[in-house]
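Notes continue from the previous slide.

Worked example: a multi-chain complex. Inputs as given:
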Amino acid sequence: MSFLLTCPNCGTREVTDFAYGGEISPRPKARPSFRELNEYNYFRRNVAGVQREWWFHRSGCRAWFIAERDTTTNEVLSTTLPFEEPEPPAAA
Amino acid sequence: MSRLPQRPGERIDRSKVIRFTFDGKSVEAYEGDTVGSALFAAGQRTFSRSFKYHRRRGLMCCAGQCPNCIVAVDGAPGARACIEPVREGMAVEHLNAKPGLEFDAMRATDLVGGPFTPPGFYYKTFIRPRRLWPLYEKVLRHAAGLGVLPRHREDREWRTEYRRRHADVLVVGGGLAGLRAAARAAELGADVVLVDEGPEPGGSALFSKDRERIAPLLTAARDAGVEILSGASALGYFDGLVPVWQGQTLHQIRARSHVFATGTIEQPLLFAGNDLPGIMLSGGALRLMGLYAVSPGGRAVLATASDRGLHAALALHERGVWIAAVADLRPTLGALADELKARGVEVLAGHTVIEARGSKLVTQAVLAPLGGGAERTFDCDLLVVSGGATPATSLLSQTGAETRYDPQLGHFALAGTAPGVHAAGEVAGVEGAEAIAASGALAGMLAAHELGFGDERSRVYAAELVDGLAAPGQERAAVAVPPADAAGESRGRCFACLCEDVTSKDIARTVAEGYDSIELAKRYTTVTMGPCQGRMCQLPSIRLMAEHTGQSLADVGTTTARPPWIPVPMGVLAGRPFEPAKRSSIHWRHRALGASVNWAGDWRRAYDYGDPQGEALAVHEAAGLIDVSTLGKLLVSGPEAGEFLDRLYPNRFSNLKPGRIRYGVINSDAGRIVDDGTICRLDENSFYVTTTSSGAGAMEEWFSWWLADWGMQVHLTDVTQGLAAVNLAGPRAREIMGRVSDMDCSNEAFPYLDGKQGQVAGVPCLILRIGFVGEVGYEIHFSSAYGEHVWDSLLEAGSDLGIRPFGLEPQRILRLQKMHILVGQDTDSESTPFGAAMPWIVKLDKDEDFIGKWALEHYAEHAPETSLVGFTLANGRVPTEGAVVVDPQGEPAGQVTSARYSPVLGQVIGMAWVPSALAGDGATVRISDEGDTLFARLQTKPFYDPEGEVLRS
């Protein structure tokens, strides 16, 4: 795996600068059933295609942000801080 | 050192003599020589012994392509002599031959013959009896292999560095096409890097008639600002990232567009004895002569499939080598053959070499017409072969480019490239210096254009180049496809793979055994898996497979091209070892006090000061001081800080009063313990959170992750590195505090679990009255700049009261006496607060949701299978941490997590996970530890000060 990610704070960096937080699987809003809880804790959709996922700029500003990435090509479509509108990625 | 007269183009500087040793003997060389050229000039013909049969092998390609000249340089195996530059004083040694290169005892494997080492021999022979495998392995490892790594090389890893380079265009290959491509792309404004394997750019033009074209192209590339890396090999292509090994640097080059101008690889011919020293590829002979002024032989026979061999014959003849005969596979001869004939050289059309004879060096070559006929034997000391040239498409294949078998050319040709990847020059099938340079210019411009560089003019020019290259201007030079094996089976070993000593017969046998796919045959015979990575053997083995399976070459297909493209030392890939050690600001005081310092995660910590038991006792009897700067420290502030912590921890913090402290355990949403620490409310809006030392980084990520998800009005500051902390504990701690601080430290003014800000030794501090070690204690946090000052002041203030510094090990004894858990030591990824005997920490009546709530609700209703409890051992030894707790049926049912001898209690204490049904006070469980059975008495209350009276006093 080798590609570039654009940190919303710092700019474009090698992926090795970042830690992967996995696909975004929202925490249940209300009390889940035991089955739903286990699905949330242990199951992932593992999409072959574009998915929204968490990244952490571990060797940089140490901010969490959300990326849209095609898991089949590693093309990053957007990166954005939570609660902000996505920006198109810098040319990479 | 015999050399040819000086000519332009040679790389050596005859005014500078360099001396090195080969197997201990001194060798003279000129500056610019390679180890290979210098040794050959000094008369060396055997450079290595082969992998399996220990046959003599000599220089063949002189271009770092074949495995024949692999040597050890200064103790490091794997250097290819033919491209390794000479250095004054370097120690070169042969590999894989004992007792010596000239007499190798293992040669017996070759002389004994065939049945000893067919493919799969090891698998079939050494498999039983199984218990003997360690013995077999020892013998086999000794017999085969490519050298031995020295056991100790202390500075090895320190010699390589990573370098990251981002560029617009990366050009791989610095021949005519690559240089032109780089220059054109840079002239259009692109940031271009060019990497080339050779010691100087030029590629195969360096030793050909096109040599004079190099200088202007190189100047143009330099003037346009191309960064040129020489002696730099591209190792592979990883999603656009190309690692390039250059001496002590691993460049990680990421370009937006790529041009591959990797040229071709000259192919050997397959005939009996085709591995004898003195048999060279035409390119190898030309390199030796042209670059190093070394005559490859005195009397030569040539065998060729294309004009390459004829050009070589002319060049050899020109430099005084007697040409005994030239065998050309092609049925009709052209102008080059006429030129040779005019010089009196015999050229045999439709002929090839079927056998080479000789023991230490080739002495005779047997030529015969293709398809059989009158054989002719020629004496020689040099046999130059050229089986055509195959495009070096391996790196391109890694980018997704396709190859297709071309029956006219007899090799797999490039059939298309992926977007953003361009091929130029011979690798793309372009021939002739003019066309090669033009294809380079085109590739460079296309790469630049697709990145937005260039203008209308350059686009028009590029279009013209496309037309020019497509125009049917020049005829393709005729090439004959060599036979899979010219010798047949009877004449002697014919090697398809020099790296792994796989013969044409081995491949026939492999097919007969049913391994009829190239990928299976590769794994069975290991053909293409040696150091040459298929350069010399891929095409020959495909031809042999096709012949024996009856398939076409296109159907046999190629094996998958994988990195690394050239053998690379592990140390280069590992780079500089980067294991940063964290040291507290007080670290050097511990050193001065004679502490034994060990790793604790990333930290270097004082384990003890030589007397862990005495240090622990001092904390009980007087006072002790420990450096706890490694604790994770987070400042959580903002109007919603309390609510934020309520959501992260299973207990409540929003109702904590300013100046008070509460213990907290972080759980995952699966209800498992992740970390623990204390939280002190500083004021209405801010909390000071400590985490475990090893969990500091992970907790900061955890906190900020949930903050990013929830978007609360909270600000998080990691002050782990900025603040030092020491814990002053013991019955005299209060008295010592009184001496260094003007605060009222009485129990009434500063009770247990209070956190106050005040001065200690004149330094502003946050002082937490907590008791991890079980005695009255003050955990003092302050700016790490004052670390040594505060440490010194406290030790000095308590010196007459018996204060002692204590390390991590006595702290572990002390906390175990209190059954204070260590997350990660006493808990694992399955532990819940209920199992860990901390149900009180979970406030399920909390209205708000918190991380882990739903899972913990579940665990609250389902009793844990195992529980963490304390135990004592009457007269037993200290059990190993991890020793097994055995249930009454004798089945493993838990494990010991911590155990120590407690000096103050005078007995062995510990903690263990035991079946919950057994986990009552006074119960006895069996512990099985390294063959011993120990009887442990369980207890649920702390061993020391069970009611916490000491702590609160």
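Summary box: The first helix of chain B runs from residue 35 to 41. Residues 70 and 80 of chain B are 4 Å apart (CA to CA).
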